[in-house]
Amino acid sequence: MPGASPCSPADVARPSIYKTPEELRRMIAPGLATLASLDAARAAIRPGVTTLEVNDIADAAIRRLGGVSNFQMVPGYRHTVCASVNDDVVHGIPGSRVIEPGDIVSIDSGADVGGWSGDSAITVVVPDPSRPELVAARQRLSDVTEESMWRGIAQLAVARRLNEVGAAIEDYVESQGDYGILTDYIGHGIGRSMHEDPPVFNYRVRAKGPEVKPGLVVAIEPMITAGGIETFTRDDDWTVATVDGSMASHWEHSVAVHRDGIWVLTAADGGLSRLAPLGITPVPLA
Description:
The protein is α+β, with helices and mostly antiparallel strands. 28% of the residues lie in helices and 23% in strands.
């Protein structure tokens, strides 16, 4: 399928996976522009708003910070975000779909600033007072997905090999109940291109993966369903949905490993508020 974020295991470019300290610093600005776009999108999501309106608001936030959407650099894709609603997992195309109470909405966004990329995703559950149990179940799905991402990031901070990240994600998700981890779509390295080596699995694999050392920058992005993991691509040739109609959630951050620790490039505090309870203190890039 086309190469929107997230990627499949075979869908990455192949420059060096380790950046210099100066190159890491150049990735701060696109990370913050990506963050701004998702903050704006989160604030815009409410009943009656279309996914295209959310897209346009996110695009304006990136441009205010001097960036452009790196999603629009993907051949055949002309939008700033992917907006995936309910049983759509990833790659949903923004359009005329109206957001409704109780929807679970995943927004994936990326910015290019000065030729360097950021990539991040959030999930928002729209309130619906008339269906509290439905909203609670969908919020639980989002919470498990988000926390599994943070568990993966925390593991990155202490890992010797990259594929320890996927094992940490899988262990957490399995401890939380009967959720499904997509295996057809994974995380990736990021730098001058939005998708680079190495692949970042969200589940345990036999290979150890590359060494975790200064200069490694990866996008960690679990995609979790409330049911099965089988998916299909809708007729638009982009949107990936669950075969069984189960709800889905997608969370993602871009994370840099440097000589003094790790820093979440797409979080305002570098990930401190979520990593500190896990025993990790992120360190800003010098």
